[in-house]
Design brief:
The protein is 59% helix and 5% strand. The chain is mainly alpha-helical. Helix 1 runs antiparallel to helix 3 and helix 3 packs antiparallel against helix 5.
């Protein structure tokens, strides 16, 4: 873990803790429930925040699907299979990465920030200081979902403590809740957009990198299909959320391209 990653993770943890503590200490719905001895909702909120922080650390610290040198044998087998496919064009080949010198499986890409090739590369997330790839993408979606619930609940709690009055004294006492609400609202919009866009891409079995760079990726540019990995919404979602094994995308690619269009 580099120093940049430590600072980002520390900032995420500190911000989550500060907002949670502030909402519990100010005159909000949660504070009133605490004072009445109704601890179920305050404890549930704290546990949900803790769950989101743990998911954040899990996603940011886990292997996103780094391509290892010992996988070259499997990549070679996949390339050999592609040679006997009648519809496979000679321009679509597995290639060796010019940075880490490993043979890249299909849909992998080298991340210069992580200094590794990543299987089914989606993007490098600066807030995680880690890539989102084939191994951690489902957990990344779980994190976004939990984080969205936390933000929506936190925004409601912050709003519940505001009773608007036009006075300087009122502003002094409510500045934290106002800033918290606007900060939470901003994060909510960002997380919601991320969640919706990723769900759409997953349902199509494409990645952010493939969606943004379709015209520059050889296996997409030379494919007879617009998206050779799309197997229908249900199968795409099942393969993404339920499959526990890494997928040999070469087999799906050449099989789909050999089907009549």
């Amino acid at each position: 873990m580099g120093p940049g990653g430590r600072w980002v993770r520390a900032a995420h943890t500190a911000l989550s803790a500060a907002l949670t503590l502030g909402l519990l200490l100010h005159r909000t719905d949660l504070r009133e429930q605490e004072e009445r001895g109704e601890l179920l909702r305050p404890l549930s909120f704290v546990l949900l925040v803790l769950c989101s922080v743990l998911l954040y650390f899990k996603v940011s610290l886990m292997d996103p699907g780094f391509v290892k040198p010992e996988e070259e044998a499997k990549a070679g087998e996949a390339e050999g299979q592609s040679l006997v496919m009648p519809q496979a064009t000679g321009e679509v080949k597995l290639r060796r990465c010019g940075y880490c010198l490993v043979k890249q499986p299909m849909r992998a890409r080298h991340c210069q920030l992580c200094q590794h090739c990543v299987r089914r590369y989606d993007h490098h997330c600066p807030w995680l200081e880690n890539c989102v790839g084939e191994r951690n993408h489902p957990l990344f979606m779980a994190y976004l979902g939990v984080q969205l619930v936390v933000l929506l609940w936190g925004g409601h709690v912050a709003w519940s403590g505001l009773s608007f009055q036009q006075s300087w004294e009122w502003l002094q006492h409510n500045i934290f809740l106002l800033l918290s609400f606007f900060l939470i609202a901003t994060f909510t919009i960002v997380v919601l957009l991320l969640l919706v866009s990723h769900l759409y891409l997953i349902s199509c079995n494409t990645t952010t990198w493939e969606f943004m760079s379709h015209h520059r990726i050889s296996y997409l540019r030379h494919s007879e299909r617009e998206n050779p990995f799309d197997q229908g919404i249900i199968l795409n979602l099942w393969r993404f959320f339920c499959s526990r094994h890494l997928t040999a995308w070469e087999q799906i690619y050449f099989h789909r391209n050999s089907e009549p269009v």
